[in-house]
Amino acid sequence: LWYNINRLKEVIRIPEIVEVQVQVDGLQRILGQKIRKVQVNEDSTRLLNVHPETFQACLEGSTIDQIWRTGKYIVWELGKDLEKSKSGKKEQQWQYLVTHLIMTGGYMVNKLHPHERIIYELSRDTLYYGDKRKWSHVNLFDTDELKFHFKKANLGIDTLMANKLEIEKEMVEKIYQRKYMNKAIKEILLDQTVISGLGNIYVAEVLHHANIHPLDTPGHLSWGDLETISESIKYIIPLAYSVRGSSIKDYTDTSGEGGGFAKLIKVYGKAGQICKTCNCQNIHVVVIKGRKSFFCPYCQPRR
Ligand SMILES: [Zn+2]
Q1: pLDDT tens digits along 213-226
Q2: What separation in Å is there between the alpha carbon of 206 and the centre of ligand 1?
Q3: 253: closest CA among 14, 93, 3?
Q4: What spacing in Å lies between the alpha carbon of 293 and ligand 1's midpoint?
Q5: How many whole angstroms from 277 Cα to the centroid of ligand 1?
Q6: Residue 66 CA, ligand 1 centroid: distance in Å
Q7: Considering the chain, what is the average pLDDT of its residues?
Q8: In the prediction, which pLDDT does 258 show?
């Protein structure tokens, strides 16, 4: 088939900030291309915020002018060839396509997705959007809706883009507020309004690297501890990005290989196994706000 001839792009289905950025990097290939045809599978209309026919009418004939990431959202800015556009007035206003992959959403360029939901025929490539569980969101927004959406999301500083000092400053300002004082640091770091982009995998690895127990609270953590956590964020996140993210469950790249970070994981998902940092204790797991939190009791003692 023709799409096998083209260079294949990868997809990742465990999207934390790193994996979303890897998707955005892969999508730069479609920048400037025109959307010729859009096909939404009948069982997948709930992913959209508009009627599928409206979705098609708005997108067909548009060009993809910009692609970027804000937090875990992938934003396309759309340009329209007004003369050739099939769409009515309302559709003209929608300039942004915002995708949140949630858990199993993902784009593939020129490669069929095993759980295909939306197909975009572009001027040069075919883009497949898939989502095994159908929990992801593919929304059309106008400028006001986009602003409102991100204002509401109130995302904290971006852990991939910000430097260590910026992250440290943000954490010191936010974490010592009364509302966080008795919360577990694990829970606070997962809160995207404090700092954005850390999910369950990377929080576990960051706290292990920083020798901080996931249940410690800001009341027990010094500025020095927050500095150490910032350093660990800026060690773990760029490391994960450099190996193109994590593959824990079903992620493979187009050559059938997983992202490199799985091999570098020290604690996440390793309950009962010997800690490779100290070689003297087994990894423990506690449930914090319904999420499993892995740690080594020797390397990460309670404060
Ligand atoms: Zn250990």
Answers
A1: 999 999 999 999 99
A2: 13
A3: 14
A4: 15
A5: 5
A6: 44
A7: 87
A8: 57
